[in-house]
Amino acid sequence: MCLSLAAPVALADSNDSSATLPSWLATFNGQIRMYEFHRFHNNNLDNPSIRSAFATSAKLFAQTKSLYGFSTALGLYGVSNFGLSPLPASRDGSLMGNGDSFATPAEAFIQYKHSIFQARLGNQLLHTPWVWGSDSRVIPAAYQGLTASLTPIKNLSIEAAYIERWKNRTTPDFSTTNLYGVDGPSFWYGGAVYGMNFGKSDLKVQGWLYGFTDIANLTYLQADYRYHTGGAIDPVAAVQFAHESDTGAALLGKVDAQVWGGEAGVAIGRGTYTVAYDVIPSSTSAFENGNIVTPYTHTYATDPLFTTSMTQGLADQTTSGHAWKVKGVYWFGGDRAWRFIGSYARYSQAQFNHPFQTGNPSEVDLDATYFFRTGPFKGFSIRDRLGVFSYSGQQATFVYNRLQFQYNF
Fold this sequence. Notes:
Layout: E1 25-41, E2 49-64, E3 70-80, E4 101-114, E5 117-124, E6 142-150, E7 156-167, E8 187-198, E9 201-212, E10 216-227, E11 233-246, E12 256-268, E13 271-280, E14 321-332, E15 338-349, E16 361-371, E17 380-391, E18 396-408
């Protein structure tokens, strides 16, 4: 069995090269990512399918120094499979589509920054719970529009945006078509994140409002808590809530959805171990029986629900229901060079929507990453990720193995 190094160790500004930059340049960094996918999809017990893909991507990002608060930035991304992927008929198109190579200016913006305020106009990456890069392929999703952020006091950030178009993870071009195939709508959002410490307690709260034009309005709240006992075990907990209703032309029909979720566990030394639960109540007259609408994470398995796994999540079941998940994260070695993640999740659906389905689904995920923290390979990481998705009473119906090599410079 080949383990796979999967979803990205996020695109990051790894090493600071500012000492060698030209006088007009404030930031220059890049990334090289090599990915190999293998999946076995047994959606028909008599005719299973095997898909594979290989691709390498490169990113170069530069931003000029500020002049009266203004600066410009350009992030170029190039992707190629170098002819090493199989023909499209047996290729896993979720890695980079069915083409052989492409390039894209995923980041190209003008920025204004003064004191506690910042605004960006153009192509950019976003980092909110329901709209972000979903960065588990060779390049992330990117967005085209205007964003603004404000940090009025310590530990408080406020953000708002109006987005006209976006670029998904497998194409070079920006588009108005979201992951439901709906064409035309723009969207906006506003949100705030506040972190506080009182005594031995750490608390982070956040709230977001999304307006997916002519589709739905989504409200999302989340709070994360940790109590520092001073001993070997620290309790951790989190709660989340979402409410969504249709708006405008209601291009997906009536939307009436809620999500309630909770997570609790302990942090012991270098490990964190949690149990999580999410529920989406049924609404029989609404879209997908009351399921939440997620135009920019749908089918990506990158939404913020506590029970979302590597290949599937509660929102990806195309119906309402509930889910629970147990998860462990453990860091090992000097400088925490190794990270191990393991989880088991079970999803209970209000309806069975697949003709071959024999029962409720579950997923087991295994994930190992090695980070080179020092020396000549600093900035390099290797990640292997395995997901096994099954229906009750059936053999594994979906096995996904992803191997990733990444270097940040």
